[in-house]
Amino acid sequence: MDQKKRVVGILGGGQLGRMLAEYANRLGITIAILDQPNNPAAEVTTGPHVQGNFKNAEAIIKLGSGVDILTVEIEHVDCDALERAEKELGKPCHPSPNTIRIIQDKFLQKQVLKNGGLPVSDFDELPAGGEVAAIEALAPSYGFPIMLKSKTLAYDGRGNRVIRDSSDIASAVEALGGGLTKGGPGLYVEKWVRFEKELAVMVAKSVTGEVASYPTVETVQKDNICHIVIAPAQVDGAIAAKARQIAEASVGAVGGAGIFGVEMFQLENGDVLLNEIAPRPHNSGHYTNEASHTSQFEQHLRCILGLPLGSCDLKVPAAAMVNILGTGSGDSGMEETLIPCVRALSTPGATVHLYGKKECRKGRKMGHVNIVGNSMEEVLKRVAEITGEENNASWSNLAPQVAIIMGSDSDLPTLKPAAVILKQFGVPFELTIVSAHRTPDRMMEYARSAADRGIKVIIAAAGGAAHLPGMVAALTPLPVIGVPVALKVLDGVDSLHSIVQMPVSSRFVFECRWVRELIGPLQRGIPVATVAINNSTNAALLAIRILGAHVPLYLQKMATYMNSQKDEVLTKVEKLEKVGWEAY
Ligand code: ADP
Ligand code: MG
Q1: Does residue 300 fall inside a structural domain?
Q2: Which end of the chain is more exposed for a tag (fewer CB within 10 A), N or C?
Q3: Is residue 556 domain-resident?
Q4: By alpha-carbon position, which residue is closest to atom 13 of ligand 1?
Q5: 274 shares its domain with 381
Q6: Residue 563: which region, alpha, beta or left (left: phi > 0; alpha: psi -120 to 50)?
Q7: Which residues pair with 198 in a beta bridge?
Q8: How many independent structural domains does the chain possess?
Q9: Ligand 1: residues whose CB is within 6 Å?
Q10: Which CATH number fits the domain that encloses residue 132?
């Protein structure tokens, strides 16, 4: 570590500054804060506290003169003063003042991202004084609703107004300050995005040029404020990978070093659009404190000090973050606000973070709770316990863990029992038709992408020559369980033999001795587990046992299921003894 560059000055002393300081303390890095007195960060910092405003040039220069390097926990700062600190005091600021300047104007930010070739929703600037007329002119091509946004000083939805129809236009413009000519911030409009989910990715970019990104997460907003974050996002792995790629590229487009929070929209067709970037630690990255190898706060310090970056990987299978937002003011407001935190204290896997804010107000971010667990189902159950809300993220919303595939819809009756078992155990699954003969390309694509999409076990049913399980097993490293399906002839024994001899024991192979001799040795190395003919129930139970090897919740459920089976038999034994075999 460069011992000389150890005093970091942060513009802003809110919760993000406080958590940066907590991680800095552990690394022996001194933090100095510029903010008003009694801010959450100053309570835990070891360095000087410059009392003043982070928009005030003099205060920024004062902070700069007492530190080695400057950074921000909020983007609404005086960038000219930061440039002066760099030039006159030789104190670098990361991210660079220019990056912050681009990001603090949401319209300029969108332009830079669009010019960088990144996917954003359509947007247009509104001329000062002519906002209402401009929106009216755009309305036919935009369609309602239209999102009206302030270019600057926007956060937690405060710079946004939804225009539902023409009668809303003037009042929405007024509500956001009336535009530049009336002394409000400049305004722009965005086309409404009908998103399926909101996704976010934290991207770390070091002054050394090293770049790393955290997994894609899902954010759930309530009243425009982040309510819950789910990590990893319960989306197709291909979508998660796309979001991460877009996030890294967008951080490249705005330049600068540090940690960045990138907010995105996922559309129904799988497309991902950028929403906005924050040049600092972000609410959607709070989960990293307990769930990741390296917290976003520590990663930011590593980025700006040129230290090697830490792993961005999750160290638990599933995590969530719940924001603790003020429900009211005064002592009673505070007490009510903290109820979820009290519940969290007795919830396994939950960690409470409070920001030390003395005043509680409705909607104010007072703290957050991170929850980790062995499966998303377990984590969401704990989230529901803490928030007191219904666990509405039911099994069907979670990313599938098991894939049930069949060669033809005629196999569906045979596979229904597997689906019933998985549903009963709360294991998210998908069920689809993939034919080795009729859709070979689809089968290849499906099997090759299954692991990346988050699937853990594949159940494949097939009748007759029964290629599907073996072919799929040859194309994926995932465990495959074959279900031999009985057809009208041969009673399914042909399917059973085919599957146990997988992957190359199709009837074709059996019939050609030379082929059998040539590829016989290859039959070892690509195993397919097989259950009894038509017994998809056992295939599902085996899949759950495989998942249970690393998800204790599934093992517990399996033990309960086995006990209930035992009880069923014992009841019959009892009845048989009581009534005798003749009357039974
Ligand atoms: P803030 O700076 O307050 O976070 P955002 O621009 O991120 O402002 O908007 C807040 C929320 O409003 C987003 O998280 C999203 O739920 C919604 N939102 C923003 N832009 C759009 C849009 N163009 N279409 C639909 N919803 C949007
Ligand atoms: Mg936002």
Answers
A1: yes
A2: C
A3: no
A4: 224
A5: yes
A6: alpha
A7: 219, 265
A8: 4
A9: 121, 147, 154-157, 159-160, 190, 192-193, 198, 221, 224, 263, 275-276
A10: 3.30.1490.20
Domain that holds residue 154: 122-191
Same domain for 131 and 203, yes or no, is no
| 352-411 per-position pLDDT tens digit | 999 999 999 999 999 999 999 988 988 999 999 999 987 655 455 788 999 999 988 999
- 162 assigned to some structural domain: yes
Nearest residue (CA) to ligand 1, atom 10: 157
Surrounding residues of ion ligand 2, Cβ less than 5 A: 263
Residues 31 and 175 in one domain: no
**Residue 516 confidence (pLDDT):** 55
Record the pTM: 0.86
- 84 and 153 within one domain: no
Cα gap 254→99, rounded to integer Å: 6
Those residues with Cβ within 8 angstroms of residue 518's Cβ, 6 or more apart along the chain or in another chain: none
User: Which CATH number fits the domain that encloses residue 365?
Assistant: 3.30.470.20
- Of ligand 1's listed atoms, the one at least distance from the Cα of 157 is 3
More confident residue, 527 or 513: 527
The whole-angstrom separation of Cα 505 and Cα 41 is 67
Q: What is the mean pLDDT of residues 113-140?
A: 96
Q: Is the pLDDT of residue 127 over 60?
A: yes
User: Which residue is it, tokens 């990715």?
Assistant: 201
Distance 461 CA to ligand 2 centre (A): 45
Q: How far is the CA of 103 from the centre of ligand 2 (A)?
A: 12
Residue 16 Cα to ligand 2 middle (Å): 16
What is the tens place of the pLDDT at every residue in 475-495? 999 999 999 998 877 788 878
**Order of strands across the sheet that contains 49-51:** 49-51, 30-35, 7-11, 69-72
β-pairing, 146-150 vs 160-163, is antiparallel
pLDDT at 121 over 90: yes
| β-bridge mates for residue 260, sequence order | 203
Domain-terminating residue out of 46, 74, 93: 93
The model's pLDDT over 270-306, given as tens digits with 9 standing for 90+, comes to 999 999 999 999 999 999 999 999 999 999 999 999 9
Q: Probe ligand 1: pick from 122, 142, 268, 275, max atoms within 8 Å of CB?
A: 275
The answer to whether residue 510 scores a pLDDT higher than 60 is: no
* Average pLDDT of the chain to the nearest whole number: 91
Two structure tokens written together for 557: 């459920």
Q: Are residues 215 and 350 in the same domain?
A: yes
- The answer to whether residue 224 sits within a structural domain is yes
Q: Is residue 464 predicted with pLDDT exceeding 80?
A: no
CATH number of the domain within which 448 lies: 3.40.50.1970
**Is 203 in the same domain as 156?**
no
Query: Token digits for 526?
Result: 């690509």
Q: How many residues does the chain have?
A: 584
Q: Return the best residue to mutate from 103, 104, 147 for the ligand 1 pocket (most ligand atoms within 8 A of CB).
A: 147
Q: Given 170, 191, 212, which residue is the final one in a domain? A: 191
Q: Do 245 and 275 sit in the same domain of this protein?
A: yes
- Which atom of ligand 1 lies at the shortest distance from residue 191's CA? 23
CA distance 501 to 481: 13
What percent of the chain has pLDDT above 90? 77
Reading the block at residue 186, the tokens are 């400049």
What number does the ligand 1 atom closest to the CA of 263 have?
A: 7
